[in-house]
Please model this.
Amino acid sequence: MGYTERDRPRQSATERGIAARARTAMRDSGLAQREVAARMGIDATKLSKSLGQTRRFTAEELLQLARVTGVTVDWLLTDEGVETGVAAPDENLLPGTRDESDEHALRRRTIVEHAWRLFAARGFAGVRISDIAEAAGISNASVHYYFSSKQELFSEALPYSVKLAYDRQSAELTEIADPVERLRTLIGLQLPVDELVRAEWSIWMQTWVAIVLTGDQQAEHSGSYHRWWRTVRDVIAAGQTSGAIVDEPLDDLADALTAFVDGLGIRVLTGLITTDDMTKQVDKFINRVLLAERNAQ
Model:
């Protein structure tokens, strides 16, 4: 039996806003609701209930909805003024958009997503346009219709990684109030512990190498990395305000933590340490360097 108006759970304005924005995102995505649910990996009935406000979207569902429809999680969450507390990237650092039909926008997103996965797994030199076309289920000519070269496609890989990380942080951090827990969660979300985040790290590392060798994408990388640094800095600042994090120069603390995570991440991807080793080392670093209570002992 469905809900009646009398026994329908009371929904906050935020939940109504999320449902309304989700419907807008789906409408503009070029996909039918059932196809959105399939691409999200959830039952169509669950999606219908969330859109009808009889169940809440989970953080993972918001993340997948943003990926499928091309919007950001922050956009889905902020209709009623919810603050995610995650530093937003400049618009030019997110995947490119064009003045085009929903169908063409969907095709472009699909090509970028498949190209991103291939570049992450095989590296730029190991991927051909024909590989991307095959993965996306289209012809080589169709790929070239949207992107003039493989290099142009690779240039979309970093913005796509930025969006994935931004969406993940927005989805997971919104309801965490404790600043130390928020900091641990934020860093944990960026550790290369699963296939998706390892792929993001692969794209970052390839971008770093390209900058060292050619200077390409230096501006994009600088802006993208600064967004991540600002997010870490803002969480540390909240911890200092609460007294939970040491009263040391804020920028220095953000620099130290992000550099520490970068170095350990490279070690994980090159097989020198495990993800468990990295997780333990990061936790020790936060305890030893950042926590005010530990430092006062």
Summary: The chain has 16 helices and no strands. The first helix runs from residue 13 to 29. The CA atoms of residues 1 and 7 lie 11 Å apart.
